[in-house]
Amino acid sequence: MKNIVLFGTLILLLVFAQFAQAQTADDVVNKYIDALGGKAKLATLNSVRFSGNMSIQGNDIAITITKLHMKGMRMDISVMGTENYQIITPGKGISFMPVQGMASPTDMPEEQAKAAQSQLDIQSALLDYKDKGTSVELLGKEKVDGADHYKLKVTFKNGISSTYYINADSYRLNKTVSKRTINGEEMEIETSYSNYKQVDGFWFAFTNTSSVQGETNYDKIETNIPVDESIFK
User: Fold this and answer.
1) Phi, psi of 150 (to 5 degrees)
2) How many CB atoms lie within 10 A of CB 148?
3) Could you tell me if 31 and 211 are in contact, meaning their C-beta atoms sit under 8 angstroms apart?
């Protein structure tokens, strides 16, 4: 009888522990959303354009990224006298990179397009994440640059996952770590986010540093601008 009671108590403790962890994960997500501008404000963001420069091997490359919420993303790159672009839509990805010798637009590999599709959610992939079929698991805390960060494993509906590191004080995203297949080779990609500034009530990281693409600095971010959907075709 005593063993049965102890077993029952153990089961209850495990259930409560799992519930507490789920609540803690949601609490981190909610505070992260607040740090971006808040749920109500983010829901009003329909389009955004980022303009700046990407630094690769000491070379500055002009870059413009235009996004229409859940419909399309286009990245235009001017380099070495060529005009290049990449397009992501909910259905596929298209790449046209004359600087790499491409003569015409080419469909991206399916895995590469899938990995980028979470970026179509400009209101934040974690806003109402459960309704989107996304799961979030709290993996605890970890030091990043000497500061405590919450470590969240985020798995999207399409099966792609990333690890988010969210500052425990500011609740801003510090970095993401993801495994991606590029040109048939699996790579771990780390991207850090810094230089946060407020634009029209929304908070954006004006500096992104990727282990693959180098550092990108935006000098201008515009929100809710008119976007012609034909640019995604």
Assistant:
1) -80, 135
2) 12
3) no
In a 13 Å sphere around the CA of 22, the CA atoms on its Cβ side amount to 8
Cα–Cα dist 49/117, whole Å: 17
What is the DSSP track for the chain?
A: -HHHHHHHHHHHHHHHHHHHHHHHHHHHHHHHHHHHT-HHHHTT--EEEEEEEEEETTEEEEEEEEEETTTEEEEEEEETTEEEEEEE-SS-EEEE-GGGT-SS-EEPPHHHHHHHGGGG-TT-TTTTGGGGT-EEEEEEEEEETTEEEEEEEEE-TTS-EEEEEEETTT--EEEEEEEEEETTEEEEEEEEEEEEEEETTEEEEEEEEETTTEEEEEEEEEES----GGGG-
Q: Whole-prediction pTM value? A: 0.86
In order of their start, the domains of the chain are 2-232 (2.50.20.10)
| pLDDT, tens only, 171-213 | 999 999 998 876 777 889 999 999 999 999 999 999 999 998 8
